[in-house]
Every structure is written in C-alpha cells, then in structure tokens.
Write a structure and sequence with these properties.
about 375 residues, mainly beta, 9-stranded antiparallel beta sheet, 1 helix, about 5% helix, about 55% strand
Length: about 375
C-alpha cells in the first residue's frame, strides 16, 4: 500500500500562510522632499477602506498642507505636551517658517516648574509608512518620529532634540471618526470646503516621559491625535475656527465650529462618547461661542482674547450636553489671530439628572477675518 503524501497539502498551506502574512504586512511608503512641489495638488476628501492616517495630499505644493497633530494634558491642568509634524509651506499655513516644508514643532508646559518651552526642527526628508489604518512617520535627522499600530489603538511619539528628549505614548479609549461619521469607506472627510479632518484618537491614556534641559516632565493624562489637510492655504479658506477636545466626567468630547472666509457659512462637528460608546458624531451637532468682554461672534482678530467658550453638543438621544470651557493657560500663540490653551471644563446634560461634571481640555482658535 502506498503511503499518502502530505507534501502538496503542506505546500498549499505554507503558500496560503505566506499570502496572508504578505497581505497583512503590506505597507504604502510616501517620501516627501524639502521643497514644495510644482503643479497642482490633489487632496483626498472621500475616505477609503484603509489608510485612515495616511498622507492625504499628493503632491504638496506651496498652497496645500498636510499635518499630524498629537497632544496630552494632565487632568489637573498642570502639564501639557503638543507635537506636530508638518508638510507645509508658510504660504499654506502662515504660522510656520523655515527653509523646508517639513517642520516639526513641540511645546511642553508645566505650571509646577513654571515651564513653557518649545522647539522646532526642519527635515530635508520625511517618510510616512501607512500600514492598515495606522501610520509611522520619520522626519529625517530632526530626532522627531511617530509610530502607530495598524488599527490605531496606540501611538508612540519620540523626540531626541537639543534640550528636549523623551517619549509620549497613547492607548486609545474612543473610536476614530471623521467630521460627520465614524471611520469607514466612502465617508466625507471634509470639515469645511478645502479642509479635511480625520480624528484617529479622540481620547486616550496619554503617558509623557520627557526631560527638558535637565527638568523631568512626567505625567499621565488625556491624550489626543488627529490630522488636517487642505488643497488651499488656510488663511484663504477659514474666517475663524474653534476646536477642542477633553474629558468631562464620564464623557469624551471633541468639537469644531468654523466659519468659511468666502461665504461666512458655519461648519461644525460634535463628538461624544461614554465608556467608548458613541453618543453622537455629527456635522452641525456642535455650537461654540466665545466668552469675555470685547468678544463677539463672528469673531475678529481685533477682539480681546476670550476668557472661555460655551459649547453645546446635541446627542443622538435628543439630550444636549452643555459645558463651559474656562481657559487656564496659554500654551501657544496668545494673539487674536491664533491661540491654544489648556482649559477646565464644567457642565452636564440639559434636562438630565442635573448632575454637573468637571474635566480637562485643550482648545484653540484661529481668526483670519478682521
């Protein structure tokens, strides 16, 4: 009797395993040089089935931009960190400068140490590797990099620059989303005309371990990561925008409220989760208005800086989450045109149990219309 041979079957199994492994490991590599490209930029504003955190503009010319933004804030509002990886010229985003379109920026604040420090570096080359929905970015020879898992469940940001060294990790606790929908294929990624937004990590356990010129900055807090991109300069598109994220008691909250420069139309997005369950994620779900003397809506750059904001977000249940954003400290800008703050949150559900919660946030405003 002839012994059965398993070689063909084993070969087929190994081939199948190899194909699966090859598919799982498939990555897309994008490399960007130091100069703005000539010609027309093409921006992606409709989502794909994967590549949530991938570059969205090809090529990046002098009037387009793409960036990856990361921050964390301690729940007592004493510490914060912001790291941004840009592909942009000054013409496209007029708050950066330098000899290349590849700047990286970090700011770290510590009220306890009376510390507010920042640094920037300019790369001659940036490489972004997209695998699944996650991305890994290296701004060559700057000491700045980020690395994300395929499912975007965690990210690590590493900095090894003059006077600032450390790592910043985040493990997500809320699902990713676009302005009007959760992550998925064929969704609009337009926040407003010409500007896209993808929020990979609306909330996370952020852990920061840095040394700044000999001072240790270590904290665990509210971590956040998103990206924006555009095929027109920001100051040719935006009249004003309010953005923020934070934790309010049991809720994760993210908000955007912007006005278009050309037609003064309002574009808003509100996102709320509780225990990782989405309570709302919709366009026009949020309303943000400034507080303080000599402030107005629509805002102008000649207004005084606000002391805070009133935010209202409509939930799918029909309830409304209303909270006040009290500005605690300036961590970038500090002008009528642009400011970013650490903030305290207070509020609750209108018509609910009457319970009020406290929380922590990072928020910012741009005002280009005067």
């Amino acid at each position: 009797m002839k012994r059965p041979t398993f070689l063909p079957l084993l070969s087929a199994i190994f081939l199948l395993v190899g194909l699966v492994a090859s598919k799982a490991a498939q990555s897309i590599v994008d490399v960007f040089g130091p100069d703005a490209a000539n010609g027309t930029s093409v921006a992606q504003f409709i989502s794909s089935a994967s590549g949530f955190n991938s570059p969205k503009v090809h090529p990046v010319n002098s009037t387009s931009f793409d960036w990856w933004y990361f921050d964390a804030v301690s729940e007592d509002q004493q510490y914060s960190i912001v790291v941004i990886f840009f592909i942009s010229s000054y013409r496209a985003f007029p708050f950066i400068s330098g000899s290349t379109i590849l700047p990286t920026i970090i700011t770290i604040s510590s009220s306890e140490d009376d510390l507010l420090t920042g640094a920037e570096a300019f790369a001659e080359e940036a490489t972004i590797v997209t695998t699944g929905d996650g991305a890994t970015g290296l701004w060559k020879d700057t000491g700045f990099s980020f690395a994300g898992t395929e499912d975007m469940s965690s990210y690590t940001i590493s900095v090894n620059a003059s006077g600032i060294q450390g790592t910043f990790t985040m493990d997500t606790i809320s699902p990713p989303h676009y302005p009007c929908a959760l992550a998925g294929a064929n969704e609009s990624m337009l926040l407003m005309p010409h500007i896209g937004w993808a929020n990979s990590i609306p909330d996370s356990i952020g852990k920061v371990d840095f040394n700044v010129n000999g001072t240790d900055v270590n904290f665990t807090g509210v971590g956040y990561h998103d990206k924006n991109w555009a095929d027109k300069p920001m100051n040719d598109t935006v009249a004003s925008w309010y953005w923020g994220h934070g934790r309010l008691g049991p809720y994760t909250v993210v908000w955007f409220d912007a006005l278009s420069l050309n037609n003064a139309a309002e574009y808003a997005s509100g996102y709320v989760t509780q225990n990782s369950s989405v309570l709302t994620n919709g366009c026009l779900a949020a309303s943000v208005r400034p507080l303080g003397s000599n402030t107005s809506y629509p805002p102008t750059a000649s207004n005084d800086l606000p002391t805070g904001f009133n935010v209202s977000i409509s939930l799918d249940s029909g309830d409304t989450l209303v909270f006040q954003v009290e500005l605690v400290s300036v961590i970038a800008g500090g002008t009528g045109i642009y400011s970013r703050w650490v903030a305290a949150l207070t509020g609750g559900l209108v018509g609910g149990s009457g319970e009020s919660w406290n929380g922590t946030a990072v928020t910012e405003q741009f005002v280009f219309d005067d």
